[in-house]
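Response to reviewer comment R2.3. The reviewers asked that we include at least one raw input/output pair. We reproduce the pair for DGCR6 protein here without editing.
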Amino acid sequence: PSPCQQRLSYTTLSDLALALLDGTVFEIVQGLLEIQHLTEKNLYSQRRQLHSEHRGLKQELFHRHKEAQQCCRPHNLPLLRAAQQREMEAVEQRIREEQRMMDEKIVLELDQKVIDQQSTLEKAGVSGFYITTNPQELTLQMNLLELIRKLQLKESEAEKAFA
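Raw output as returned:
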């Protein structure tokens, strides 16, 4: 994108080109991408598992409530239903809290992955990479990664063409 091109100095581009020459950076980026995909799949699986557990919990509670209502004497039914409503609300509140905690855990883990990636690329000497939480700098780093990935794809296409 042109706003990023204006922000990238010729020095940064030149340093990036030098870092890409031997192919090591491509391998590092590929490894980081694979780690990120595995992490995302794992986190998604954990969230799906929690959702499944919650669904089972609510179904079990619903069936228990239904059974209790069928065994209940008619004059006690309003009291039973009120108690069951409170129990259902408490379970739903607990579910919301557990989902919120899971989502926070996911965000923290993904943020840590970003920091790990920034650190790895900085240590590898890739220009433009350092640990930051500044949204503009993160966008710039994401664009640099996209550029590296596109160059990597072009290089592998060229290798196939000459093979």
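The chain has one domain: 25-156. The radius of gyration is 26 Å. Further pairs are available on request from the corresponding author.
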